[in-house]
Write a structure and sequence with these properties.
Shape: globular
Number of helices: 0
Strand content: 35-45%
Structural class: mainly beta
Helix content: under 10%
Largest sheet: 7 strands, antiparallel
Order of helices and strands: EEEEEEEEEEEEEEEEE
Length: about 190
């Protein structure tokens, strides 16, 4: 069962570079100087370095390098922190661990959307190179770990890619990565 399914379609755009990153990632990850301070049911996530949160909004999802996920309830770009409600251990498949939340030093990536039943991904008209999509952070644009190509232009058949989950299933968008062989390209997506 997903941690935070959305009931409404959510759309976004992603700038794709030669470094693989999640399709739904907003901005850059926090630094390794992240601290987690519990205040009631909320945990304040503060980055010891400058953390650009200018595009982050309430109800987006924070995912830590340790596998924790939580819904963002407040954002303070000037203070380099977010408040997160109810961390969930999303990556352990029923296993329990002693910790009740993330540990200081875990990095945090913000996602516009976490899970959906269907996602439609389109290449932007300005693209000149194919973008490659995979389901691990080691996806490449060529070779043995090459992802599924999304063609550069709308005149090519695979300029649009639609991913569908099975009945009663969800696509974990935090694990859908994109990369390009050179330069910078763009994608538009809609998750439902």
């Amino acid at each position: 069962m997903p941690v935070y399914p959305s009931k409404d379609p959510i759309q976004g755009r992603q700038t794709v570079t030669t470094t693989a990153k999640p399709l739904t990632q907003i901005g850059l990850a926090s630094s390794g100087a992240t601290t987690f301070t519990t205040t009631g049911p909320t945990v304040r996530v503060t980055d010891g370095a400058a953390w650009d949160l200018s595009n982050v909004e309430v109800n987006m999802v924070a995912v830590t390098s340790g596998g924790w996920r939580g819904r963002i309830t407040a954002v303070n770009d000037g203070g380099d922190y977010i408040d997160v409600h109810l961390w969930k251990d999303a990556g352990r498949h029923g296993q329990r661990r002693a910790a009740e939340g993330p540990a200081d030093g875990e990095t945090v990536v913000i996602h516009k959307m976490e899970v959906c039943e269907r996602v439609i991904i389109d290449a932007l008209d300005a693209n000149t190179l194919d973008v490659f999509l995979g389901f691990a952070n080691d996806v490449t644009a060529s070779g043995a770990k090459a992802g599924q190509p999304i063609a550069a232009t709308a005149t090519q058949e695979n300029h649009r890619l639609t991913l569908l989950a099975g009945l009663g299933m969800y696509i974990d968008l935090t694990g859908v990565y994109v990369i390009v062989a050179a330069g910078t390209e763009g994608l538009a997506w809609v998750g439902m």
